[in-house]
């Protein structure tokens, strides 16, 4: 059944005029009045709905029953990702959302090939947030994760508590990590996990030292060095398999 994210209050029985971009999507899918669809606003759960009217640039739906269904993993993952070049960042964020990431922090680092500041950074953040909403529509998540404005690594680390809190784990992927991934607990003893990943050139040695001083454990995923757009997806999938995120 077609699913649409709408950033507005929803209530059973309401007759709701949909935003223009959602109406356009309905036109593309060639839905007709009377067809069923699903709406969610990112606050949890979803609503059954029926397309009541369809114009050239408008669509009205009647909201039906609320369904308290969720597709979240049993832990919260923040992905602090070194900003990758080209369309890698888009692809990575989309897949991270499908794999259960609950928060995205784009990180500027010493070896980053892309620098985002000012208006350009704001445009990219808005683009990534729209991409996240679309990924939630596709994968069935009813809680829409947020992407932060791009941050520089060292100020971001300085803003964190000096050490992980109770029930929190901080991981840093590093080819030099002495601790293998398989050393992590077999069950999820953590409610919150933050995973830090460098850009194409990886984190600089001094950046790894700063992250380790902030409680990030350097771990390695194996004998092969993964690309930045592969590493995040690999660790999110591995944690899901290990800790019941599937």
Describe this structure in words.
With 246 residues, the chain is an alpha/beta fold. The protein folds into 2 domains: 65 residues, Ribosomal Protein L25, Chain P (Beta Barrel); 168 residues, Alpha/beta knot, CATH 3.40.1280. 30% of the residues lie in helices and 26% in strands. Strands 6, 7, 8, 9, 10, 11, 12 and 13 form an 8-stranded parallel beta sheet that branches. A 5-stranded mixed beta sheet has the order 1-3-4-5-2. The protein is elongated. 32% of the residues are buried.
Task: Write the topology of this structure.
Layout: E1 3-5, E2 15-17, H1 20-28, E3 36-40, E4 46-54, E5 59-67, E6 76-82, H2 88-98, E7 103-108, H3 118-139, E8 146-147, E9 151-152, H4 153-159, E10 168-173, E11 179-180, E12 192-197, H5 205-213, E13 217-220, H6 228-243
Parallel strand pairs: 1-3, 6-7, 6-12, 7-8, 7-9, 10-12, 10-13, 11-13
Antiparallel strand pairs: 2-5, 3-4, 4-5
Helix pairs in contact: 2-3, 2-6
Order of helices and strands: EEHEEEEHEHEEHEEEHEH
- Contiguous runs where pLDDT drops below 50 for at least 5 residues: none
Largest sheet: 8 strands, parallel
Shape: elongated
Helix content: 25-40%
Output the keywords.
6 helices; eight-stranded parallel β-sheet; 2 domains; alpha/beta; 26% strand; Alpha/beta knot; 246 residues; 30% helix; elongated; Ribosomal Protein L25, Chain P; five-stranded mixed β-sheet
Summary, kept brief:
30% of the residues lie in helices and 26% in strands.
